[in-house]
Write a structure and sequence with these properties.
There is one protein chain. The chain has helices spanning about 25-40, 60-80, 90-105, 110-115, 115-135, 140-145, 150-160, 165-170, 175-190, 190-200, 200-225, 235-255, 265-270, 275-315, 335-370; strands at about 10, 20. By secondary structure, it is mostly helical. The longest helix has about 40 residues, at about 275-315. The radius of gyration is 23 Å and the shape is globular. The termini are far apart.
C-alpha cells in the first residue's frame, strides 16, 4: 500500500530498508490537531457539598466523550492506512492512553477528587503523565498524519514553510519550553489559593485540567518524538531529569509540610481520612508515582538511545571514516558493536539505580510518616 499523500521524505535505517517521515509541518499539525481535539473536554461531574459519590457511575459528558471518540476514529483511520508499517502494539498503547483520559475525567475518580486530596492527585497523575505517556510512547505521529483530513495535511504543509507562525510554534515546542510548561503546571496548581479556587469554581477547575493535560501532551510528545527534527537523546534525558527533580522536590514539600494547607476539603466534606493524613498521602502520590513516571520515560529513552547506537555500530562495524580520516567530520568515531552494547547496559543500569533509590527513599519516608504518632 502506498504511503499517504505528501510522504516524500525517507531516511535509511538498515541496509535494504527505509523509514518514511512525513514533512515535519504535517506531523506537527496532526499531533497538535489531535491534542486540540482532546483539550476542550470539560468536567461536569464535580461533587456538591454533602452529596455522595456512586462508585459505579460514570459521567457521559459529551464534552469529554466526543473528543475522545473523534481522536480514536482519527487514529483508527490512520492505523488502517498504515497497516503493516506500524508496530503491532501501537494501537493498544494509544487506546490505553485514551481510556486513561476517560478514567480520569468520566469515572468516579473525578467527583472523588472533590472530596479527597489524594484522589485529586491520582487524577492529575493520570492526566499529566500516564495518559500522555501511553499515547506517545509508540511514536504514533505518522499514523495520526495518515488519518488526518486532507485539509489539515495541507495546513500542516503550509506551517512547514518559513513564516512568523512557524517561528512561534517552534518556540512553543522547544524542549526548554515544553519542559518549563510541564513543571509549571504541576507547581502552579499546588499553590493553595489557586488550588482552592479550582475546587470552588468549575471554570477554574476545567482550566486546571486543561493545562495539566495540555502540558503533559506537549512534553511527552517531544520526549518520544521520532521526527528527524526531534530533540536529541541527550536533550530528552535532560528534559526527563529536570521533570524528575522538580517532581521530587514538589512531592517532598507537600508530604513533609506538616498541617493542613487545603481546608477547602473540609467545606466540601472530606472523605475517609483526616486532613493531615489525606494531604500526606496526596503528597506521596506526587512524590513517588509522579516521579516514577518520569523515570520510566527516562529508562525508555535511554534504551532507545542505546539501541540506536547498537544499530549504527552494526551498520558500520569498522567505524566511520569521514573526510578527516579515521574520525568523521564531527571528530567522533563510530561505535563498535561492543561499545554500543556497553553504552546500553550502562545507561539501563543507571536508570534502574535511579528508580531503586527513589523507591527505597520514598518507602522509608512513607513508613516514617505512617508510624509517626
Amino acid at each position: 500500500m502506498a504511503p499517504p499523500e505528501g510522504w516524500s521524505r525517507a531516511r535509511r535505517r538498515l541496509p535494504g530498508t527505509q523509514e518514511h517521515h512525513p514533512p515535519r509541518g504535517r506531523i506537527g499539525a496532526s499531533i497538535i490537531g489531535a491534542c486540540v481535539a482532546i483539550l476542550p473536554m470539560r468536567v461536569f461531574a464535580h461533587a456538591e457539598a454533602g452529596s455522595t459519590v456512586d462508585w459505579w457511575s460514570w459521567n457521559a459528558a459529551p464534552s469529554v466523550a466526543l473528543p475522545l471518540i473523534v481522536v480514536g476514529l482519527w487514529y483508527g483511520r490512520g492505523a488502517g492506512v498504515r497497516r503493516g508499517r506500524r508496530s503491532a502494539h501501537e494501537p493498544l498503547l494509544v487506546a490505553a492512553g485514551l481510556v486513561t483520559v476517560a478514567v480520569a475525567l468520566l469515572s468516579p475518580v473525578d467527583p472523588l477528587g472533590e472530596r479527597s486530596y489524594t484522589m485529586h492527585q491520582v487524577q492529575h497523575l493520570l492526566l499529566r503523565s500516564v495518559a500522555p505517556l501511553l499515547l506517545f510512547v509508540a511514536s504514533p505521529a505518522a499514523t495520526f498524519v495518515a488519518g488526518a483530513p486532507r485539509a489539515l495535511r495541507r495546513l500542516g504543509g503550509g506551517l512547514g514553510g518559513p513564516g512568523p507562525l512557524r517561528v512561534v510554534l517552534h518556540g512553543i515546542l522547544h524542549p526548554v519550553t515544553v519542559t518549563a510548561l510541564f513543571i509549571a503546571a504541576a507547581w502552579t496548581w499546588q499553590w493553595p489559593p489557586y488550588f482552592t479556587a479550582a475546587l470552588r469554581d468549575e471554570v477554574v477547575h476545567d482550566w486546571m485540567h486543561f493545562t495539566m493535560l495540555g502540558s503533559g501532551l506537549l512534553f511527552w510528545w517531544r520526549v518520544f518524538d521520532d521526527r528527524p527534527s526531534a530533540p536529541g537523546y541527550g536533550q530528552r534525558v535532560v528534559m526527563l531529569w529536570a521533570a524528575t527533580v522538580a517532581n521530587i522536590v514538589l512531592g517532598a514539600i507537600l508530604t513533609l509540610k506538616g498541617g493542613v494547607i487545603y481546608p477547602v476539603y473540609a467545606e466540601l466534606g472530606r472523605y475517609w481520612l483526616s486532613g493531615v493524613t489525606d494531604e500526606v498521602l496526596g503528597g506521596l502520590v506526587v512524590w513517588i508515582p509522579g516521579s516514577q513516571m518520569a523515570l520510566i520515560g527516562l529508562l525508555l529513552v535511554i534504551h532507545r538511545w542505546g539501541r540506536r547506537e547498537s544499530r549504527r555500530a552494526s551498520t558500520h562495524p569498522e567505524g566511520t571514516r569521514g573526510r578527516t580520516g579515521a574520525r568523521g567530520a564531527t571528530g567522533e568515531t563510530a561505535a563498535t558493536p561492543a561499545v554500543g552494547a556497553a553504552i546500553r547496559r550502562q545507561a539501563l543500569g543507571l536508570g534502574l539505580l535511579s528508580v531503586t533509590v527513589v523507591l527505597i527513599f520514598g518507602g522509608w519516608i512513607a513508613w516514617a510518616l505512617i508510624a509517626r504518632p
